[in-house]
Amino acid sequence: MENRIRFRHITCFLAIAQEHSLGRAAERLHLSQPAVSKTLSELEALAGAQLVERGRHGARLTQAGEHFLRYAADVGRALDSAGAALAGAVEPSAAILDIGALPTVASGLLPDALTRLREVRPHAGIRLRTATNAVLLAALKAGELDFVVGRMAEPSAMQGLSFELLYGERLIMAVRPRHPLLGKAGISLAAVLAYPLVVAPAGTVPRLHTDAWLDAHALRVPPSSMETLSVSVARLFVRRSNAVWITPQGAARDDFDDGLLARLDLPTASAEEPVGILRRSAGAPSELAQLLLDLLRDCARDARPERQSGRKRATRAS
């Protein structure tokens, strides 16, 4: 097989894995869709296994395809590096890091780590993508990202990936200062639900925890709630209204510290959400990626006492 597989097979397969569609992969490669389909069929014949399931809703990798992707992504990056080296043989381009982060995580440790990175590598380029966990993991597997700061997924979605825990955080309820519920003893969930809610979209881990917590009290998220992944929209909306934001604590950390938001004294989900680094199991990170990974670990260690004291301050303030 290694004597018959060609670079066009690899580039075609990677385009399909990244676009989740033969049609979009064809557009990306400037080929016709029949040509892409033919190249994929050749690769599957060489592999002796179906790598992609085609259907009305696009193209989805099979288990064999997921396994092959682990190695095809490395080949794709090597080709890109070789091409960049040839194109910039006279003047090497600055190192660029492609990373992914959940919106609620991107406003937590990541800014601190990126600030430290800028101090030691001022000319490094950073491309940050924020999206849902599922979208980020698909991009990571396809070789579009160096690593992701997010949450562990179901075992089927973790094939070819590793997870390293950075920290755990609970859901909290954030409101504007001088919110009518602040300072009241014995707040009930029913009282909270009388105000507009801001929650994560269905299918995300924070929303699953939110639904489970409310379900344990025979309640549910009201249909009138605002569902958003945008931390900036959520925090500004809550600061300008009487809405209650159910969110991982890290997303509102700076607003709590600056006194722009306050925390309601009402226990939410008992379990902490694990947040960590997701990487491809195969291959080693680049020098720049390894540097940022080490800085993230340092920031997580530095933040542990702060998180503990922050919980105590929030309790006393409430």
TrEMBL record:
**Keywords (A to Z) from UniProt:** DNA-binding, Transcription, Transcription regulation
Q: Which GO terms describe its molecular function?
A: DNA binding; DNA-binding transcription factor activity
Q: Where is the HTH lysR-type domain?
A: 5-62
Which BP terms in the Gene Ontology apply to this protein? 3,4-dihydroxybenzoate catabolic process; positive regulation of DNA-templated transcription
**Superkingdom of this entry's organism?**
Bacteria
Pfam family name, one = HTH_1
SUPFAM superfamilies for this protein: Periplasmic binding protein-like II, Winged helix' DNA-binding domain
GO CC entries = cytosol
Q: Family per UniProt?
A: Belongs to the LysR transcriptional regulatory family.
Annotated protein name in UniProt: Pca operon transcription factor PcaQ
Taxonomic lineage: Bacteria, Pseudomonadati, Pseudomonadota, Betaproteobacteria, Burkholderiales
